[in-house]
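Collaboration report, partner site 2.

Our partner group contributed sequences for two proteins of shared interest, and the home lab folded both. The records are reproduced in the order in which they were received, starting with the first partner submission.
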Amino acid sequence: MILIGGNMTLHAENENRVIRISTDETDLIYCTNSNGRLYQAYFGEKLLHEADITALSSDEKGGADSGAGQKGWDIYLPAGSGDYFEPALGITHSDGNRSTVLTFASVDTKSLDGNATETIIRLQDGQYPLEVALHYVAYKKENIIKTWTEIKHQEKKPIHLTEYASSILYLEHPAYYLTEFSGDWAKEMQMSTQPLQPGKKVLETKLGTRAAMFMYPFFELGLGQPAHEHQGEVLLGTIGWTGNYRFTFEVDNMHHLRVISGINPYASRYELPAGETFATPEFIFTRSDEGTGKASRHFHAWARHYQLKDGKGDRMTLLNNWENTGFQFDEQKLSGLMQEAKHLGVDMFLLDDGWFGNKYPRNNDRAGLGDWQVMENKLPHGIPFLVKEAEKAGVKFGIWIEPEMVNPKSELAEKHPDWIIKLPNRETYYYRNQLVLDLSNPEVQDFVFGVVDGLLTDNPGIAYFKWDCNSPITNVYSPYLKDKQEQLYVDYVRGLYKVLDRIQAKYPHIPMMLCSGGGGRCDYEALKYFTEFWASDNTDPVERLYIQWGFSQFFPSKAMCAHVTSWNRRTSVKFRVDVAMMCKLGFDIGLDGLSADERTFCQEAVTTYNRLKPVILDGDLYRLVSPYEGEHTAVMHVDEAQSKALLYTYNIYPRFGEALYPIHFQGLNPNKQYKIEEINLMPGTKSAFQGNGQTYSGDYLMKVGLRLFTTETTSSHLFELTAL
């Protein structure tokens, strides 16, 4: 037996091979069989002894065809290979044959750094010049594995891909419980759980651009029991693809579960010429034996260190003008808001939609989109004047763009109708009065890149972009692709990445917010280019508690933008600020609508936020009490040294006479003493917490806890913990 990868020892007893992909907590192990095929033999908690892996390699599990004597399940199941269930790969060869059989060819393992290791497994078809390379990168400390597939061939004519998953994983447990994330505009990332029964459950989108509008590209699996925050075995997975995706969960006749993840092949049969490589997106996953809380912290740490743009860097607080002005603003009004930004103490003023278009002025959402020239009658001195006004106010200047979209009422639509995704022979359907530009077309890619490049070339003082995408792909027809229409969904996303690669190469340090009518884009491939994303247009702080709870399952706090607005005026400004402070803080509210005490509170909150940024943005997140389980919720951030923590408690709509239970802290050092102080208090008020200013051991706070919830409706309390 030869053991390859994951710090394994090599032996040469026979021709069988074992490939081990490991983190500090997880093993994913593949074995070859006498038929030359490669099978998943194990996926679970890391094995400690080589002898156990030796035993594992000789253990015949039996798959769909147990008579074959296989040692597990096919690593990348192709159609036509003898399995009766959903395949990961479907190919129509150039001679019309739709079957593929993949056997093991080779494996390479290399260290990417002291923590990450890449394993590349190559499979081949003995009857066709076809190679499939499976890539795995294991991040030891973060307990994350990401995997993707590359397909290439040397057949005389093109082959056609009908299925091209990124990954297939197999699980063997008595029960499986799927937590999915769904929603709509202003109701993003709602969580629901159901048991998986025999047959298939599919999570997917077919929207093309605003892909996460209804269903989100994440899932949680509870293994043996529903996924729980603090205990039990769970698997969390997501796909890095800013377009149509599909997760297929299939429970087979032996009650095994296969999880297939990748691009949604709906209307996307892809022609692959000889010599070219088709690369799938990254499927990223982690498992935990201590519930979803620990698994989330795996994702957060990995994102900050490896995936999120400027993941270790700072984030700017800001004041946005949209809720203040909508489309109705001028230079004087914007200059006044810049002064308000300075008064608040935030880092930046962000100009939102409505600043462009001359022949068709952008005074509403029905015109001007695509014409990225400054509106002369609204802003006669252009963007340079606004940048200078921001500099005079002592804040940075950021700006909104939506460069992938076009209004039919625009100069761009008049000059380049062939750049627009639009059916040539049917009535056009408009979503939000706009259409999508055809990013499969290199000329359109140049144009979209030029929107950013032109603004930064003329205005190098621009410090930030908010990149919006408000429409899914409708009227699905590409003038550019002609007879290859089925490639549009894939080639659009690849065209977007080409644009973003160019921006990244020329302007590597420009921060950008990923927005899509709220949280309609929120995948980890896009976040290689964006420092943060807009979670929802719904800034009602009560609703945000649920939305942010959902997104925090996969994203660190520094990736999520949260703004203080006038949504839900029944809640206090303090409550709204406290909710937004859990994430990357911003404001979209006019100071003239606040009382003197509220303005002072906001200023002091910004100062406090800046002081505690290292804890909030880079600390470990612990979700203590779920809003889904009652009328209270609590979370906390703890820094790496366990010397500073911040606890957020929210009383949503408590019932009369409701029993209030202690909050049990997490993530503290049990042997340290912590002083606890309530912060973010309104001017002239004092904390009602009787233990305010007292000291407790970490052990006491985690095991005994403190009674910090109240029966006061929509109220909030923030507590700072300092190790002595």
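Second partner submission, folded after the first:
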Amino acid sequence: MSSSAGDRGLTMHWAFDEGTGASTMESVTKTVNDVHYVFNNAEFTTPCTPPWRQGVAGSSLLFDGYSTYIAHSAHEEERNGEPEFLPALSIGAWVAPRTYEWGHEGKLAAIVNRHNKDAKQGYLLGMFRHGSWSFQIGLEGGEWIEIWSPDGYELPKNEWSYVNAVFNGDKGKLKLYLNGSEIASAAAPAGSRLAQAADTDLLIGRNNHSSKLAEVFSLHMFSGLMDELKIYSRALSSEEVAASYQAVLALHGGVRPQVEYDDIRLDRTPLLADRHRPQYHVSPPAHWMNEPHAPIYFDGQYHLFYQHNPQGPYFHHIHWGHWVSEDLVHWRDLPIALAPEKDQLAPDGIWSGSATYDADGLPVLFFTAGNDSASPNQSVALARSTYSEDKDPDLVRWIKHPEPLIVQQQGMGAFGDFRDPFVWKDEDGWYALVGSGTEGGAGAALAFTSKDMLNWTYKGSFFEADIQKFPYLGPIWELPVFLPLGSDKQGVSKHLLLVSPVGAGADVEVFYWIGQLDKHSLSFLPDQEEPQLMDVGDFHFTGPSGMVDPVTGRNIVFTIAQGDRTSVLEYQSGWAHNGGLPVSVYLREDGRLGIEPIQELRSLRGEKRLSLHDKSLIEANEQLKAIQGDMLEIQLEMERGSAAQLGIKVRCTPDGEEETLLYYDWKESMLLADRTKTSQHSEEKCSGIQGGKLELCGENLKLHLYLDRSMVEAYANGLKSLTTRVYPGRKDALGLELWGDGEALVKSMDIWEMKSIW
């Protein structure tokens, strides 16, 4: 949309009509500005330029929320002879926010700014919490003035809005306009002048004084689409603002232009070539995730949600992301299911929870509502699907119950730690476990019951740790999961309790007990006091959630596969963490817990690369020389012979400089991963030896391995898993080699290439 004769006093104009590339022109001075974007010079994926999308007039620029911004040098204005004090200023822009920032330290996510609030200089137009927005200026004489959007005039997500901010110093007025109409006015001293922020660059999409998180991430970045940004050195009239708005509407048949969801959503395409990002593990399209949770089956589809920061690959302002699948393997990205809103329920975060069914069999979500103005700042809340109205099988829309359902009281666990409800239903009603601790400093799961799903009764501690005997169980438990295992050989009904300890001294892994449910007192009686680990790979297998699959009757557990990287690498990569493979858990004949990857994963098998039987290590390794890959499934059975240690090296370079060894030690009865040679990259953290106890009881070593770029998962004899992360520095770290400290027999080995689920 070109400048016209009516643009008197126009000093800067970014039309964003390039539609491609990593630069944009300010058309008044013909200055070409670089568009800063993390993948302009990518290390781990194919470099690409920022995404351009359909705009209100021509194209628009999509800002990713954490790396995209434009810097227009202050020296450009100095060359144009810009005065130190301005009698007037007007800014107009079309914006379609994708997310809202939390508003750390009260700062705005800048649309455009050239300001220094401490010096009370310059101007800032930007967004705040829950879509509110503001225009702020510094005046000659050292006064800072702010004008804010009133309630009801927030900028909606995923929709185009036309925002205008006007300063008229002679009349002493500041005004805000939304979609061509005035929505707010504020007074300034008559005859006042805006004090320019000398030696400060004009930034589009990034705050001049953004706060830093983890010394890497700049907060207060704009996330979404932007088009037709104009700055004037005069005060536009209400008629001029309205006419500018109508001019764009005229291009779209007299209605406000619409945003296509595919144009604004997070796009996983740039990450598909990332040599470390798993491709058959479930993950967000981009940015941050932690626990996948609240699995539920409805109307022929599985739904799985996850803790998500859509603003960037860092932990902040958590939402509920959403996937859907027909087979628990191939997942589709859906819009965010739950987001913090301008209410008194959960304005500060939507934390983990679970899913169950209401009395009509419709899915409901129980979540931890974050409200920092309340004490405690965590409560249990509910959201209902709109399926009964819209019959949408993807369950895209959810409506929150306006009040929290369970609020922690003094004497109810460790006050202030109260989160991650796990809810289930039977013929007698609904039951909930909530993660907390005891006043004595031990982790605990608290129990509640309800007859109607809305009114809950506290039943006391469901189960708690003996912190003296097991200090690694920590002072607080998160993410309790409770699943039925059926009856043992004696006909006794057994259940599985999973917890994830946190806090001082806690070992942050997934611990479990097998035991019995006392339904009368709503408490758990473990068969053995000592907890067991599901996975021995340290902290890479955490954040459990679970469900009883109504299709097959299986118990399925989901986890987060945490990364092992610095914030710098997560910034450069554009993503952090992914889900682990879904696992089936069951009660074995010997009374132990069986743990196996779900059968549906076989659908990802591509070409079978190898099948061998009864070979020595030397013979097998000769055949393995032809096999390379970082997306493989491997099934391996080895008879120890004279070896005390036996296993397989994966992600090996031809010269052996980089490799990761997975092996079993019969003397120590340990399943181990040796990462001392995993990566030579100077910034990668993966190193050392991880592992834990595994009793094979005379069986051969049977490993079922999944390699998926940085993911390595080993399932051993159906009893334990070992999940770890590997980030080789070299691109040729793709080899395999069997290893042992003595003679051994490879009973069988099968290798398949694996396909991406995306």
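Feedback sent to the partner group on the second submission included the following. The first strand starts at residue 10 and ends at 14. The chain has a mean pLDDT of 96.
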